[in-house]
Amino acid sequence: MWYNVGMETQISLSEFLFGKKRKRTQKEIFFEKMEKIVPLDAWCDIIRPFYYESGNGRQPIALEIMLKMYLVSQWYTLSDPQTEDMLNENMAARKYVGITEDAPDETTLCKFRHILEENDLSRKIFDSLTALLKDKKILMKEGTIVDATIIEAPKSEKNKEKSRDKEMASTFKNNQHHFGIKLHIGIDKDSGFIHSATVTAANKSDIECVNSVLHGEESVVYGDAGYVGIEKREEICEKYQDGTNRKEKQKPSHGKKRPDTFVKREDVKFRINIKRKQVITDEQKEEEKQKSKIRVRVEHTFAVIKHVFGFQKARYRGIKKNENKMLMLCTLANLLRCSQKKLSTI
Residues 269, 197: one domain? Predict the structure, then answer.
């Protein structure tokens, strides 16, 4: 069976007939775009130190093939068996991955995914693309839009443990009960690229995790009503270890150490939407409208992850496994935006 990239092989009749057809499918067009935009060599260099070495038993499948197979499963939200089936029946996917015979089986893909999860490689891939976008001046630093979305998890208890996932949690939003995890992201205000992402249980409030999706160099932060009071958070404010602030200096009395004092930052503007019931005057309505025009860009990013890539329900048990998947989806969402804007990452 052939799995090596670059090796000359005899083309099959089905591949010949597939190449002769005139109209290209949507999958063909998509894979051609991704072939040009995905920095495959850079990502392989990140994974290679953790991948199987040749010479120890059976020859391992080429890393490039396994990475492309994994990307196909992410783009179309396929399970490992579904990915194997797709590569065995869809010629466009076979051409993109680079296989001419049977696709690697589902167990091989599962083991490859475990390598990414155990070594936190999706985070490293996400960070490498973010650094590349910064170097090319595509990702700016002036403003950040923060938001979070709930990813539902299976509520069924029909499993070996006879219980729901213990790392997931329940929450209540828009008069509806939700069980699962929450994806928190920070995107660039101007370009719309994701620069920070983290995953928590669904019961974690948005404002609790806001510091993890800010890069610290913003001059303005946008968010919905879930972030009201962000400027008062200790991790956001400037911290003065000597217990003083800019207005006054108070010495500790009776020899007791004065606790740290936190004051609002003056170098960052927080443009947070207030609750609808608090909007009264026409001026407030216009101000909230202007905030929403900018803040809505984060919803477009969630639309890509949930509707374009189809990830609306957690597939794995445990936050770590799902975080690995979501970080890769955030990376691929940035690549899709690069493709739409005709930007090169290679």
Answer: yes
